[in-house]
Design goal:
The chain contains 8 helices and 2 strands; from the N terminus they run ααβααβαααα. The model has no long low-confidence stretch (mean pLDDT about 95). It is mostly helical. About 65% of the residues lie in helices and about 5% in strands. The chain folds into 2 domains: about 5-35 and about 95-185, no CATH class; about 55-90, no CATH class. The radius of gyration is 21 Å and the shape is elongated.
């Protein structure tokens, strides 16, 4: 068994590599630009939401407070009439700086790499062949980066096209993470 501390180099380097690859995906390839759309009447909707003075949070429209309410004829009518909406609301736009989001993304990349290190270190011995390490680290990273987002399409009505693109990204991140771990795996 390999200690997690001895895997600091592949953990750190794979997080850096994924961070760079994800930046290239979003700034050069830009295929995620179509994931979100402009809402017709954007200003009217923004004005209406500002006027509600609702706290930051996630809201659903129409909302039922219980299963019993969901079965009520009034709720069924609202649901069938529409619209259906899931809204993440932040009352103030705040800064347009991407720095806080990028720092959180990098921290997330580190966490995923630690999970990949943990699983691989428990399953693979020192000196194991590159492809053995690649399989365990890559599969773990792929699952961490990608599979959880499938729930958004299942439950939150996120378009499956977005989830497919996110899953492709996760596969790329998993492959690069696997490559770094296979390359830097302890030999003895």
């Amino acid at each position: 068994m390999i200690s997690l501390i001895s895997l600091w180099a592949p953990v750190l380097l794979s997080a850096v590599v994924v961070f760079i690859i994800s930046s290239l995906i979003h700034t050069v390839l830009q295929y995620h630009n179509t994931d979100m759309h402009k809402l017709p009447g954007e200003e009217k909707v923004a004005d209406a939401l500002r006027g509600l003075d609702a706290p930051d949070g996630v809201y659903v429209l129409p909302h039922a407070g219980s299963m019993a309410e969901m079965r009520s004829p009034e709720f069924k009518e609202k649901f069938e009439k529409g619209p259906l909406a899931i809204i993440t609301l932040a009352k103030r736009g705040g800064s347009m700086s991407m720095t806080p989001h990028m720092l959180k993304w990098f921290a997330y990349c580190l966490v995923v790499s630690v999970f990949a290190a943990y699983i691989a270190s428990r399953a693979v011995a020192p000196g194991a062949p590159y492809l053995t390490v690649f399989r365990f680290a890559g599969a773990t990273a792929f699952f961490c980066y990608g599979v959880g987002s499938w729930q958004e399409s299942i439950w939150m009505r996120r378009p499956w096209s977005t989830t497919v693109k996110n899953t492709i990204d996760a596969l790329v991140y998993g492959l690069f993470t696997a490559g770094v771990f296979g390359w830097l795996w302890p030999q003895g």
